[in-house]
């Protein structure tokens, strides 16, 4: 099944879809997203998924940096950009102009949350620093994402996921033993920071309901990168040196990892001693392995992994993968095939989940978009807006919130302050609203 061939909408709604729609948790909350690239936009996207109106401010010419990263879609989007900007509206403003600052200030009374990831001092230079905006709106929740501690000596350093992965020790724990340090396949530090920032904003919104006051939230990529190390980080502190790297294996559980069957790889995750006994007796049919005292408990198996691993691999390699998977599932042992990325996205499992949808696009026809991963009351949260073309919401948002006339908007466009959307882009966005 090819993901590209899937229809934009399901032919008939299921029972959950036909139920009366419930208000989304953040309906009525308005967010000004001044961030770009990954961590900040992800934070704002999470808030948008839960129902907030997110207004993404972008430069009229270039937009978000990620509009030029990844595979091109249409004229102004890419796969990278689309992954972090669903359920938002794009408004173009050149923040270097005084007119743009005036527009931000005019919007501020209607804004609950502001998210940005300017370099240290950048927001203040633009007139958008926390203290200034707090004076204008004390209840504003202001979330600033940066690379490092804003009060430390590295505050001015730009934050990039790959650099943080290196500095936080993530590359040192990833990969196979004896191989060079290896970055994660995705920007894991940005992902962690964006999700953590969204959690902090949600907590501040909850508190504001009781206290009426806003908050300054500061998120550092380096802090979140260290948090990703989790139990490995604490183990390194206890050992006084880096823990060993195990690649696809688990440092504490055996067998737990990737194994090669006769016709392809699979994952086997034996979580306890009872499962190990079932695995040896009823899956690979090697009773002598479970009877060996060296492998009687998980602690013993981990200690003697160098002796156990080749025995297991030899036994597993004698079986076809499909048969092994069937036997493992019959015994209640966690297992699975190792899928390619395209294979996973094209699978029946993914299609049934509704997580991947195709939405209309004014240039490309349709585009694949991930739906929010959250389910509330049995329903997946909806995609209310496809990732926006550059500036698609400029006219509608500024007219609705600030009552700007077409003449005023055209004048600002002439002055280079903003760029108005083409008619096709604006009409396409309204179809999903």
From TrEMBL:
Q: Quick check: keyword Transferase in the entry?
A: yes
Q: Which GO terms describe its molecular function?
A: CoA-transferase activity
Instruction: Extract the Pfam families matched here.
Output: CoA_transf_3
Q: Where is this region: Disordered?
A: 1-20
Q: Which domain of life is it from?
A: Bacteria
Question: Which range is the signal sequence, renumbered to this chain?
Answer: none
Q: Which UniProt keywords apply?
A: Transferase
In Swiss-Prot or TrEMBL terms, this protein is called CoA transferase
Q: Could you tell me which species this protein originates from?
A: Vandammella animalimorsus
């Amino acid at each position: 099944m090819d993901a590209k061939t899937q229809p934009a909408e399901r032919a008939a709604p299921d029972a959950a879809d036909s139920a009366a729609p419930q208000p989304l948790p953040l309906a009525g909350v308005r967010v000004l997203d001044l961030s770009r690239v990954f961590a900040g936009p992800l934070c704002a996207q999470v808030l948008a998924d839960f129902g907030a109106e997110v207004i993404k401010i972008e430069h009229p010419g270039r937009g978000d940096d990620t509009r030029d990263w990844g595979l091109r879609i249409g004229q102004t989007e890419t796969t990278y950009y689309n992954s972090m900007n669903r359920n938002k509206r794009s408004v173009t403003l050149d923040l270097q102009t005084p007119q743009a600052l005036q527009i931000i200030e005019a919007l501020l009374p209607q804004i609950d949350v502001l998210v940005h990831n300017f370099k240290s001092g950048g927001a203040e230079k633009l007139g958008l620093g926390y203290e200034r905006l707090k004076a204008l709106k004390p209840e504003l929740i202001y979330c600033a994402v940066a690379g490092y501690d804003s009060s430390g000596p590295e505050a001015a350093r730009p934050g990039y996921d790959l650099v943080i992965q290196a500095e936080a020790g993530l590359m040192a724990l990833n990969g196979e033993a004896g191989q060079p340090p290896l970055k994660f396949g995705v920007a894991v530090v940005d992902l962690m920071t964006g999700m953590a920032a969204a959690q902090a904003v949600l907590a501040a919104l909850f508190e504001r309901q009781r206290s009426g006051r806003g908050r300054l939230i500061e998120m550092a990529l380096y802090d979140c990168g260290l948090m990703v190390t989790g139990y490995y980080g604490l183990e390194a502190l206890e050992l006084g040196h880096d823990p060993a790297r195990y690649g696809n294996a688990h440092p504490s559980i055996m067998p737990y990892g990737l194994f090669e069957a006769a016709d392809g790889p699979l994952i086997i995750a034996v979580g306890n001693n009872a499962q190990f006994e079932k695995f040896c007796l009823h899956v690979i049919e090697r009773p002598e392995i479970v009877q060996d005292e060296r492998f009687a408990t998980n602690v013993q198996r981990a200690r003697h992994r160098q002796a156990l691993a080749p025995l297991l691999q030899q036994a597993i390699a004698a079986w076809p993968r499909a048969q092994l998977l069937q036997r493992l599932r019959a015994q209640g042992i966690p297992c699975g095939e190792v899928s390619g990325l395209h294979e996973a996205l094209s699978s029946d499992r993914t299609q049934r989940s509704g997580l991947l949808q195709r939405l209309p696009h004014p240039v490309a026809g349709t585009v694949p978009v991930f739906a929010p991963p959250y389910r509330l009351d049995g329903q997946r949260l909806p995609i209310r807006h496809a990732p926006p073309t550059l500036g698609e919401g400029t006219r509608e948002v500024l007219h609705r919130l600030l009552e700007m006339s077409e003449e005023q908007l055209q004048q600002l466009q002439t002055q280079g302050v903003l760029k108005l959307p083409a008619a096709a882009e604006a009409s396409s966005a309204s179809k999903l609203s």
